[in-house]
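Issue 218. Parser rejects a valid record. Input:
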Amino acid sequence: MFKYVVLVMSLFVIAACGGKSTHGSKIIEQETKESVAQFIVKNKTTADEIRAKYGKPYMTAIQDDKPHWTYTYGESDVTMPASTYVTMIPIVGLVGLAMDSTPTVSSKSTVLQIYFNPDNTVENYYFSKSESKTGE
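Output the parser choked on:
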């Protein structure tokens, strides 16, 4: 019986913590359209200045013989209701089946794409930020 109590308590702790993953640059996540527009001036800001502020790009490519850099930050968090774990326990699980077990999923995404001129100044850039939450 003690093993089941420990198991149940452990599962509730895991449920409370949830599962979270991140990728990319935290620096980009802190940016806004306004702060990016204030820093990046088309045909003036250089690739060296971009790298000094934002670090190494998440992805680099060549498009139309010109460099293209992408900086990104993403975060997702999945939280399962505690009732989901109750269903794993025999007999007690019968009570848990009647409870909601829909996970809550939240995500954030920030992307900065920069296109450079042949002289390594910024030709153009695109910045986007989005958030979503499902399963509530």
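Fixed in the parser; the record now loads. DSSP finds six helices and five strands in the chain.
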